Amino acid sequence: MVHLVVSNDRDVALQLVDLDRYPIENLDQGRGAEFLAQCRADMESQGWCNFADFVRPEALDALAQEANDLLPTAETLTIKRTIYQGEVDPDAPAGDPRRQEYVHKAVQLADDQIPQSTLIQQLYQSDLLTGFIRRVQGKEQLYRCADEFQALNVVALQPGSWHAWHYDTTECTMTLLLQAAEEGGDFAFIPNSRTDDGEDREAVDGLLAGDMSKAQTFRRGAGAFTLFRGGYSLHGVTQVKGERPRITAIMTYSEQENEVIADDINVRIYGKRVERILAARKSA
Ligand SMILES: O=C(O)CCC(=O)C(=O)O
Ligand SMILES: [Fe+2]
User: Fold this and answer.
1) Residue 63 has what pLDDT?
2) From 3.90.79.10, 3.40.50.10330, 2.60.120.620, 3.10.180.10, which CATH number describes the 12-283 domain?
3) Closest ligand by atom to 246 CA
4) Which residue among 67, 162, 248, 276 has its CA within the 20 to 30 Å range from the CA of 55?
């Protein structure tokens, strides 16, 4: 059992993040300002940032242990959706991705299943961390997603599983890899494959047909913290191989305060458990 005691007196990010390497505590001066400028430049030029070993080794051990302890309480979800997350649209033109449903299986903890006392919730709820992410993206405002199910998730892909290609329902996503697959389980994405004006259908259709040449992928060990525009970049995870599951924490953000996700999308992702919660609330 790994124990890591964090104090309530200081922002949890200060206690978990490797501040020597990632000086997020002061982004206005010196090393921190240089680091931020580099992140902004990376975001601008490539549409993503990846921070290897973002949390200190003992923090990573504790976070991974905590996730492994909680996951037996999670459900195995069979997630069926189009890449845009909605239902299949039979009226869409032939060859349109709206006509195609993709399926994957994941053992997944929704936000309401991750206690407030956990290190991962405390890290997600760190104002320092949210501020850092906001500034890397150059936003005036950025809030943690207020959706009771989607805000923070822990997703385990068992050996044999993958994460089907999709766009997220929120613009920006951060993922913290808590436990890497022995083999496979690569995060792959097409940075900014769609904009508010349209979509790079050639690249998207290529990836959906199994052509990875326009997709980016990079080596990520446990502890890697990756920022990408998940709502605008088609992405997924390749099949996990080996013995152990690949476990990620997914942190979502929004420029709107109190953003929640439509009930039908949450039911599509989280299935019967959430359907029951929502139905009970309506009949109450
Ligand atoms: O596990 C990952 O690296 C990505 C997961 C993902 O895309 C999601 O949960 O929306
Ligand atoms: Fe995603």
Assistant:
1) 98
2) 2.60.120.620
3) 1
4) 162
pTM: 0.95
pLDDT of amino acid 248 = 98
Give the ligand with the smallest distance to the CA of 109: 1
Closest CA to 243 of 181, 187, 184: 181
DSSP E strands in 46-162: the ranges are: 48-51, 75-81, 102-109, 143-144, 152-157
- Asked if residue 161 lies in contact with residue 247, where contact means CB atoms within 8 angstroms, the answer is no
- Give the separation between CA 230 and CA 233, rounded to whole angstroms: 5
> Judging by beta carbons within 10 Å of its beta carbon (0-12, 13-18, 19+), is residue 80 exposed, middle or buried?
middle
Q: Where are the domains of the chain?
A: 12-283
CA of 165 to the centre of ligand 2 (A): 8
Taking the chain (284 residues) in runs of 10, the rounded mean pLDDT of each run is 81 96 97 98 92 97 97 94 90 93 96 97 97 96 96 98 94 94 96 93 94 90 95 96 97 93 91 96 87
Residues with CB under 6 A from ligand 1: 155, 163, 168, 175, 187, 235, 237, 248, 250
CA of 5 to the centre of ligand 2 (A): 31
Pinpoint the alpha helices (H) of the chain: 12-16, 30-46, 57-70, 119-124, 127-137, 201-208, 263-270, 272-283
Q: Give me the pLDDT at residue 1, please.
A: 54
Between CA 220 and CA 205 the distance in angstroms is 26
